[in-house]
Amino acid sequence: MMTKKISLVAASLFCISVGLYPGAANATLPTQVSGQQLPSLAPMLEQVTPGVVSIAVEGTQVQKRRIPEMFKPFVGRGEQTREQPFKGLGSGVIIDAKEGYILTNHHVVNHADKIKVMLIDGREFEAKMIGSDPASDVALIKISAKNLIEVKKADSDKLRVGDFTVAIGNPFGLGQTVTSGIVSALGRSGLNRNNFENFIQTDAAINSGNSGGALVNLNGQLIGINTAIIAPSGGNVGIGFAIPINMASNLVDQIIEFGEVRRGLLGIIGGPLTAKLANKFGLDTKYGAFVNQVMPESAAQEAGIEAGDIITKIDGRTIKTFSDLRVKIATMGAGSLVKLEIIRDGKRKKFEVKLKEANSENVLAGVIHPALEGAKLSDSSNVDAPGVVISEVERGSPAMQIGLKDQDIIIGVDRTKVKNLKEFRTYLEDNEGMSALRIKRDNRIMYIILN
């Protein structure tokens, strides 16, 4: 502590002495030393920063509060709900200047009724939600504007620990801010066990409001989307996380095509290749995903993958852990052709696998039809009673206004039976205009008109 105080005092005295020195007021820092230009990020940032935007959102969230037992005779049973207005700030990155597509985080725009985008040149635009993926925290919004500048993408699979990084965003609503650092680690996960995570870790300062902003390399190419921090004190402590742009791009392509992410499914159960497992199998590699079980009728079984195989590469890129494999497969679309390299009985083999579609769970119904906005849909888990389950309906939403309720089951549209979300979505896409939803509610059959 004493050392720090002495250093601060010395720095202060130095500033005072410089200020008093004749002619010091006109002194400037040199731009060159021995004829060599000093390094600066300014030229790169002048090209990149117009492609990073600030985002302001407004909306309402339904808050639920459980009624204490002693008050239930007076206010009723169950839960009390109320709508709570909110405002929020974040960042985004223009990834397609022609179409006006802006990549950001799901948590930045979630529940937003109004999304406003501010460009560095002072222009402001209302943005439209195209789609999002809560499990990977990716969202795509769109503005209608001319003369936009997009940020070019890098290949984030080629990143190495120690590569320089620059984070650009709107921390604390201060306006566009730039910080720098390095790649501290790759393939980080475990922040939310239910999500798909494969983060770039960086020590470039990331704070509240930076979410959705750009993480770029020294060439000004986009390597990631800033998304999370570890902040025990509420501020930056040098541990920030970004979604790799390769992963985000796979998801964006699906959102643009379908309005949602349609995850691919390989159909295996496994774990990491530990040192003990590698020793047991006589392997000289320390990276890979060990296959414990292959699911019947899965994409893996149809391709010839077997229990005991060790997956070491996907599309030519090394797989370090089972979590790494899980994330890469989950961010690829259903129907994608994937090349896997495995080790079996000490020999390397190659397989081509066509991914199947993972079961849809809790899809935001608004991406299927505007009148369904505010409802969450999932496939029925009862094989004897197939259909689409309404798992949640927000108060005051269009879905509630047309008469949908929690736990309703959509079993048909017009005269066509639907067994799952895929059939339901396909029917509505092929049959525009008014439709009649056949609903099963408490063992009663009823119809709700969808305009």
Structural class: alpha+beta
The total number of structural domains is 4
* The CATH homology group name of the largest domain: Trypsin-like serine proteases
The CATH architecture classification of the largest domain is Beta Barrel
Q: Choose one word for the global shape.
A: flat
Radius of gyration: 26 Å
Major pleated sheet: 7 strands, antiparallel
Record the strand order, biggest sheet: 7-6-3-4-5-9-8
Total number of helical segments? Answer: 10
Distance between the termini: 70 Å
Tally the beta strands.
30
CATH topology of the largest domain: Thrombin, subunit H
CATH class of the largest domain: Mainly Beta
Percent of residues in helices comes to: 10-25%
Average pLDDT metric: 82
Oligomer: single chain
Strand content: 35-45%
Q: Spans with pLDDT under 50 lasting ≥5 residues? A: 1-27
Characterization of the model:
By secondary structure, this protein is α+β, with helices and mostly antiparallel strands. It folds into four domains: 48-67 and 76-142, Thrombin, subunit H; 156-258, Trypsin-like serine proteases (Thrombin, subunit H), CATH 2.40.10.10; 264-357, PDZ domain (Pdz3 Domain, Roll); 363-450, Pdz3 Domain (Roll), CATH 2.30.42. 18% of the residues lie in helices and 38% in strands. The strands form six sheets. The protein has a seven-stranded antiparallel β-sheet with strand order 7-6-3-4-5-9-8. Strands 24, 25, 26, 27, 28, 29 and 30 form a seven-stranded antiparallel β-sheet that branches. A six-stranded antiparallel beta barrel has the order 10-11-12-15-14-13. The longest helix has 19 residues, at 2-20. The termini are far apart.
